[in-house]
């Protein structure tokens, strides 16, 4: 896909991976709108305050972007929240909070941007941000993991339904990435160091690294319905790796 002159919407585009994606899209010549619950400083042409878990907010925000830009070519569905807690202690309110933003909110945004792209008749590309937690079984992250697994399957179904309209739908699944959300792990002793050691490429990911994976997917014209892990290889780590017992 040619990004020069294209029109794009990025949810959660005021910080972290979203902001890095906005910067790359703008540098590539795209017109960009940011939708975020806490709009901050961003190079986007249009910024709209929106809670993606609220249907009316999403419908209104996407309509504003569609009308301002005369249609949509690109959507990056990045907005999300974290969560932490054992399943036996988890309240239904906390479950609903995380699923409401990460899965319901992503669905609402996908539905509305897809309507805009189909109505425009020129196809488009959608990339949702899932997580490697969507296919790993990490304790204390059940509701977050379920929400991100749901995003991955949502992308696959959407890719089949929207393909006939020339709309591609993919996802990027980041691993541990140095964003404001990741800063909450500072209360876990040694967590960052363990992650860095278990990453095949070493260290913790950057928002810019994930954003480059997102923009790469936007340009792959014969790819749809795929989930690309952008995690430095941390999801390759296995606790039953025999080489560990040999000190390798």
Q: Overview of this structure, please?
A:
- There is one protein chain.
- With 248 residues, the protein is α/β, with parallel strands linked by helices.
- It has a single domain (7-232), classed as Rossmann fold, CATH 3.40.50.720.
- The protein is built from seven helices and seven strands; from the N terminus they run βαββαβαβαβααβα.
- It has helices at 16-27, 55-69, 92-120, 142-162, 191-198, 207-219, 242-245; strands at 7-11, 31-36, 46-49, 74-77, 124-129, 167-174, 227-230.
- It has a seven-stranded parallel sheet with strand order 3-2-1-4-5-6-7, sandwiched between helices.
- The protein is globular and about 60 Å long.
CATH topology: Rossmann fold
Q: Count the E strands.
A: 7
Judging from the principal axes of the Cα atoms, what is the shape?
Answer: globular
Along the chain, the helix and strand elements come as EHEEHEHEHEHHEH
Into which percent range does the helicity of residues fall? 40-55%
Mean pLDDT across every amino acid position: 94
Poorly predicted segments: none
CATH class category label: Alpha Beta
**CATH superfamily grouping:** NAD(P)-binding Rossmann-like Domain
CA distance, first residue to last residue = 43 Å
User: How many H/I helical runs?
Assistant: 7
Largest sheet: 7 strands, parallel
Radius of gyration: 18 Å
Task: Assign the CATH architecture.
Answer: 3-Layer(aba) Sandwich
Helix/strand-derived category reads alpha/beta
What order do the strands of the largest sheet run in, or round the barrel if closed?
Answer: 3-2-1-4-5-6-7
Q: How many domains, as an integer?
A: 1
Beta fraction: 5-15%
